[in-house]
Specification:
The structure is a homodimer of 111-residue chains. Chain A is α+β, with helices and mostly antiparallel strands. Chain A has a single domain, classed as Orthogonal Bundle (Arc Repressor Mutant, subunit A), CATH 1.10.10. The first copy, chain A, is built from five helices and three strands, in the order ααβααββα. In chain A, strands 1-3-2 form a three-stranded antiparallel β-sheet. In chain A, strand 2 and strand 3 form a beta hairpin. The interface between A and B is medium-sized, with 32 and 32 residues. Chain A binds a DNA duplex (30 and 30 nucleotides) through helix 4. Chains A, B: It holds the Pfam family HTH_20. Chains A, B: InterPro entries: ArsR-like_HTH (IPR011991), HTH_ArsR_DNA-bd_dom (IPR001845), WH-like_DNA-bd_sf (IPR036388), WH_DNA-bd_sf (IPR036390).
DNA sequence: AGATCACTGAACCTAAAAGTTCAATGCTGC
DNA sequence: GCAGCATTGAACTTTTAGGTTCAGTGATCT
């Protein structure tokens, strides 16, 4: 399984609505820091920090182009997050099925 | 799509390795606060807080039983996180395919 | 060259997170 | 009823997050 630090960063990056909005926006195509900052009603500096967080998590890739910085999505880390969740999801489904059976059994006994 | 606050809480809850370990542990069956705190080398109070965060996120369900508190997994929120990720994952795959085509085109032009 | 535009770095502020200690509270077992 | 155990709540400390302002830096356009 993926290293803890990687998952820390990915989930932490996704835990902020502003950053999820950035990802949504980049899903429609690349954008500069300024283009991301404007609709969010945030300073360039503030937006830069969010993009940095996403980049550190491997969710976004950036590149300096002239005096702007192009930001694009970079999806390989998403697979990690997805893998973690779906692994436990399957495991939990089984466990919850087990619990259902257990409670059904208990109810039967109570009578 | 699910409300922002819900996703904030779920992703934020998952962004801590201690809490992911709790979920892993609970995947093997219910446990008390004490049983969770001991292997983590943490105080009961500290562990209680983590469990509270998971419970607020809807990832864990707890119930007072005698003088202990039983903690179990509660998976419906996982689906929300999963749904968000997989939606964008698919979207990104398409977009990245597009980018690959773009770069291939550029390389051709550079020659 | 000089003006301007987009971003960046440093410093700062405020609020929230992660953890602690210490003092209740409320069951359980004798 | 009393001792003891598991959890809880309040208060506190230290880091980290999210955001700002203000002063550079480097590219672009006359």
């Amino acid at each position: 399984m993926v290293h803890d630090v990687v998952l820390d960063r990915v989930f932490s990056a996704l835990s902020d609505a502003t950053r999820r909005a950035i990802i949504t926006r980049l899903g429609e195509g690349p954008a500069t820091i300024g283009e991301l900052a404007e609709p969010a009603g945030m300073t360039l500096t503030g937006m830069k920090k969010h993009v940095q967080v996403l980049e550190d998590a491997g969710l976004v890739v950036t590149e300096k182009v002239g005096r702007s910085r192009q930001c694009r999505i970079g999806a390989e880390r998403l697979d990690d997050a997805m893998a973690w969740i779906s692994f436990y999801q399957r495991l939990w489904e089984r466990r919850l099925d087990g619990l259902d059976a257990y409670f059904t059994l208990q109810k039967g006994r109570e009578k």
